[in-house]
TrEMBL record:
It comes from Microbacterium resistens. The keyword GTP-binding does not apply. ATP-dependent carboxylate-amine ligase which exhibits weak glutamate--cysteine ligase activity. GO terms for molecular function: ligase activity. This is Putative glutamate--cysteine ligase 2.
Length: 376
């Protein structure tokens, strides 16, 4: 099997952000995307951004065009959200984003009426119906197909850092889970989801896809749902490990970190240097630790098993990547990662509201207010 990897400009950026639709008074999810999407999709047809539906009718996804910088992609997202709000506000619908809704129940949600979604639910059953999860996807352009799998391997060591920064799903169906990112562990229950297989070359990736198609596991590369994956159609590496970011500035910060990491490792390849890799069992442990403890996790950072607090290792990584971010025009956005480290990720802020009020509806109100404030 031969899989074409599209041409893409190096270190360009594309963003996808899944947004919840909620009743602003009760905080309950509302499955009203179908009544909004026809007009929204038509309005975005000639724009750089797109507005589309998702698995559940309580979700709208906004997607940027190809940005030369993080700021370009974020501007597209802001314009997309403005168009969505022009439709949702008169309809009495609020927008918010997090990895999970604090108290919604899966059996109250409706699946979008598309064949691929019905097929997913038919195959995955209870786990599929429980996919009340929202995330972000960060695409970074890669100019050489042969770089893709080595970059995926090196970036996998930083998935727990990204997961900890984005963690925003401490509640599930009304329960306090004890996890910073419950979404991370729920999502990996789907077939082909979770951590990537440790493939080294494009030929190995093609062989993997051929095996999966031949055995009926998937029909094409888009059904590979790894936490980080090649996206052949776009010529990108796509990071999918993150919960839904609760604000636009935080989305920009994580996007800048992903972009700078990809560029940093790409430069190492250009110089003929070997990229650092961890054994897959360390990746698995790191993912669990980041899901459980968020920014308080201690992660394994090298093949010898050295362990470091993720906050400290992130601070060191930011210092290393700041010159790269300057070159990419993303220094301001990257610096906002420090703000997340100082003020806490969304999961911590949600828990603080719950502890203060004892009311998960107030947590939803907090998320709605944060989302709004982040657009100003």
């Amino acid at each position: 099997m031969t899989i074409r990897f599209a041409e893409s400009e190096r270190s360009t950026v594309g963003l996808e952000w899944e947004l919840m639709l909620a009743d602003p008074e009760t905080g309950d999810l509302v499955g009203r995307a179908p009544e909004l999407l026809s007009a929204l999709e038509e309005q975005s047809a000639d724009e750089r951004h797109t507005v589309t539906g998702e698995l559940l009718t309580n979700t709208i996804e906004v997607t940027s065009g190809v940005g030369a910088t993080v700021a370009d992609a974020v501007s597209d997202i802001a314009e997309a959200i403005a168009s969505v709000r022009a439709a949702t506000e008169p309809a009495g619908i609020a927008l918010l984003s997090a990895g999970s809704h604090p108290f919604a129940q899966w059996y109250d949600q409706q699946v979008t009426d598309k064949t691929r979604y019905h097929s997913l639910i038919e195959r995955t059953q209870w786990w599929g119906r429980n996919m009340m999860i929202w995330g972000i996807h960060v695409h970074i352009g890669v100019e050489d197909r042969d770089k893709v799998l080595p970059l995926v391997g090196a970036l996998s060591a930083y998935l727990p850092h990204l997961q900890a920064l984005a963690a925003s799903s401490p509640f599930w169906a009304g329960e306090r889970t004890g996890y910073a990112s419950n979404r991370a562990l729920v999502f990996q229950q789907l077939p082909t989801a979770g951590l990537p297989w440790p493939l080294r070359t494009w030929a190995e990736f093609e062989a993997y896809l051929a095996d999966m198609e031949r055995t009926g596991v998937l029909s094409d590369a888009t059904e590979v749902r790894w936490d980080i994956r090649p996206a052949p159609r776009w010529g990108t590496i796509e990071v999918r490990a993150c919960d839904g970011m609760s604000t636009l500035p935080e989305l920009a910060a994580v996007a800048a970190l992903v972009q700078a990491l990809v560029e940093h490792f790409s430069r190492m390849l250009d110089e003929g240097r070997a990229l650092p890799v961890l054994p897959p069992w360390f990746h698995r442990e790191n993912k669990w630790r980041a899901a459980r403890y968020g920014l308080d996790a201690e992660v394994i950072v090298d093949a010898d098993g050295l362990q470091r607090p993720v906050r400290e290792h992130l601070a060191e990584t930011l210092a290393l990547l700041t010159p790269v971010a300057h070159d990419l025009g993303a220094a301001v956005e990257l610096s906002r990662v420090t703000g997340i480290l100082e003020s806490g990720a969304s999961y911590a802020r949600q828990l603080a509201v719950a502890d203060e009020t004892g009311d998960l509806r107030r947590v939803v109100g907090h998320l709605i207010a944060e989302f709004e404030a982040g657009l100003r």
